[in-house]
UniProtKB/TrEMBL annotation:
<dbReference type="InterPro" id="IPR002500">
    <property type="entry name" value="PAPS_reduct_dom"/>
</dbReference>
<keyword id="KW-0963">Cytoplasm</keyword>
<comment type="pathway">
    <text>Cofactor biosynthesis; FAD biosynthesis; FAD from FMN: step 1/1.</text>
</comment>
<protein>
    <recommendedName>
        <fullName>FAD synthase</fullName>
        <ecNumber>2.7.7.2</ecNumber>
    </recommendedName>
</protein>
<dbReference type="GO" id="GO:0003919">
    <property type="term" value="F:FMN adenylyltransferase activity"/>
</dbReference>
<dbReference type="InterPro" id="IPR056596">
    <property type="entry name" value="FLAD1_M"/>
</dbReference>
<feature type="domain" description="MoaB/Mog">
    <location>
        <begin position="45"/>
        <end position="211"/>
    </location>
</feature>
<dbReference type="Pfam" id="PF00994">
    <property type="entry name" value="MoCF_biosynth"/>
</dbReference>
<keyword id="KW-0285">Flavoprotein</keyword>
<keyword id="KW-0547">Nucleotide-binding</keyword>
<dbReference type="Pfam" id="PF24102">
    <property type="entry name" value="FLAD1_M"/>
</dbReference>
<dbReference type="GO" id="GO:0006747">
    <property type="term" value="P:FAD biosynthetic process"/>
</dbReference>
<dbReference type="InterPro" id="IPR014729">
    <property type="entry name" value="Rossmann-like_a/b/a_fold"/>
</dbReference>
<keyword id="KW-0274">FAD</keyword>
<comment type="similarity">
    <text>In the N-terminal section; belongs to the MoaB/Mog family.</text>
</comment>
<dbReference type="GO" id="GO:0005524">
    <property type="term" value="F:ATP binding"/>
</dbReference>
<keyword id="KW-0808">Transferase</keyword>
Amino acid sequence: MNVLFRKTNAISGKLSAASRISVLNNHFCPRNHLFNMADNNPTAGIIIIGDEILKGHVMDTNSRFLSRRLFALGVKVKKISVISDDLDVIAKEVAEFSQSFTHVITSGGVGPTHDDLTFEGVAKAFGEEVVAHPELVDLCKEFFGTDDLKSPKLKMALIPKSAKLHFGMNKQTKQIAKYPLVNIRNVYMFPGVPQLLEKSFDMLQSIFANPHTIFHVREVYVDRDEVLITPIINDTDARFHDRVVLGSYPDFYNSYYKVKLTLESDNQQNVDEAQKFLMENLPHGSVVNYEKDPCGTASEHVYGIIKTEDSSHLAVNVRHATRVIEQAFEKYKPEELCIGFNGGKDCTALLHLTYAVYRTKYPDETRRLQALYIRRGQPFPEIELFTKIAKDNYHLEIITIHDKIKEALFELKSTHPTLKAVIMGTRRSDPYCENLEEFSPTDPGWAEYMRINPILDWSYKDVWTFIRTFNIPYCSLYDRGYTSLGSMENTHPNPGLQVVDSKGIISYKPAYMLANGDSERAGRN
Ligand SMILES: Cc1cc2nc3c(=O)[nH]c(=O)nc-3n(C[C@H](O)[C@H](O)[C@H](O)COP(=O)(O)OP(=O)(O)OC[C@H]3O[C@@H](n4cnc5c(N)ncnc54)[C@H](O)[C@@H]3O)c2cc1C
Ligand SMILES: NC(=O)C1=CN([C@@H]2O[C@H](COP(=O)(O)OP(=O)(O)OC[C@H]3O[C@@H](n4cnc5c(N)ncnc54)[C@H](O)[C@@H]3O)[C@@H](O)[C@H]2O)C=CC1
Ligand SMILES: [Co+2]
Ligand SMILES: [K+]
Ligand SMILES: [Mg+2]
């Protein structure tokens, strides 16, 4: 959106209504319009300084951290700029930002090396020189054992002449930070190292806090292509754009929705009204009740359904499987247990349940849940990717072994001798599994483990009902018609899900739409 807003004279803090500038913001709105909210709310601009980021060697995480934190403090970030370690570029950008925003935050370039030019660049922006600040000289002396102003070690003590120092305090230990945040006018110069920047911001965030504003954000998830709902989005914006910022964000890879709409205002009632209007005008049944943090809320939701009087098939299944997993954690210590995880839907459902039980039983445990991934044949890249996603989502410690299953389990004995049992997503309909029990030791001739099968009697449909109801992330192949995943050589989309359009183009419906679970393995050979 090209929002026109009033330029704030950040130095005096007053608004100069005469001069208006436009900034870029991520919003679909095609029109320029005056945005009232911006009139009295403080704004911020972030300047990320560093050649390493422009070359793609380092991913910028500081702007995301700062934007989120500033938003939570009631401060709107209006622009993020990434620039090189170049004196004149820094000076020009800082001068411009300082004029345009209430606060300017820079990241990087405050270290001792030749390419750290932020202090000099900021000084130049305001026509100042850098001078040795006595307090910083003392600090550097203490740190590096020299007060030779020509030494590169003292470079960090050379700051713009009128700069101020802000010493943060650790809220827990009450210790004063050793190194201060350097500031001149409305510009605050943070280090680039994310740990240093985050720590420093944590201690000094009250400088930026806007006590008058809380941004209220509402998300609406829609299961329709963005082009189909664009007229409704534009209608809503036309009606509310002076009160609510509306955002539209399509996601081509999410299994649960196609577009996320965000409504945001510093007034809760405005958000409510805009949401009501949207809900009344979006196509019937297109709004999805989506949980955006299914993994973080796993315990809450799994135990939520267990504790109710709910006698639905889903609730009965969840209650039963959870009970088996709880027994597993009663019989075995966390270090003796792992979950057999190959990225498939069954163990994905099981992982969610196991994680919910584990976090409930051991809320303070820092040890990660262990997952065994036996990599065979040529795994699909989608499975490899999903394994990594699951690892992050559920904080897994993944044990990967490259071998056939039987051999891999013998190797596991020597690499991980504490393991005694594997929780598995086996179902009775899997080959050779009709006589399994919930606790079945491995067969003679196999490495000795207890196999634990909490979802043994779940059907194909049960697994999908659970996954879809709890918005659990799953491997993307299932959305492309695969219903049972082997390796790339022997797995194809399920013919039962094939759709041929009028032009003869073939596509596949998602796995959860397969009507007959008995044909689950029809894509395997
Ligand atoms: C720990 C373990 C013990 C086993 N013990 C025996 C045994 O005693 N006797 C016997 O005949 N067969 C045993 N098997 C083989 C098993 O019965 C199946 O043949 C095998 O899991 C493949 O089944 P599937 O094709 O139905 O796959 P799936 O339906 O995908 O497998 C069922 C479950 O097994 C686990 N699993 C499957 N493949 C992997 C993998 N590559 N890495 C990690 N976990 C995986 C997952 O939890 C999965 O949900 C064992 C397998 C495992 C993983
Ligand atoms: N102890 C403290 O509080 C302070 C220490 N210093 C010293 O200064 C030096 C570091 O100064 P910097 O300005 O940080 O140097 P810098 O600009 O060279 O950045 C250092 C590293 O931080 C990472 N980084 C930079 N920008 C990033 C971004 N946007 N997102 C993610 N990662 C990013 C990159 O890996 C980069 O190599 C160190 O020697 C440090 O000890 C500087 C200021 C404060
Ligand atoms: Co707009
Ligand atoms: K550097
Ligand atoms: Mg740098």
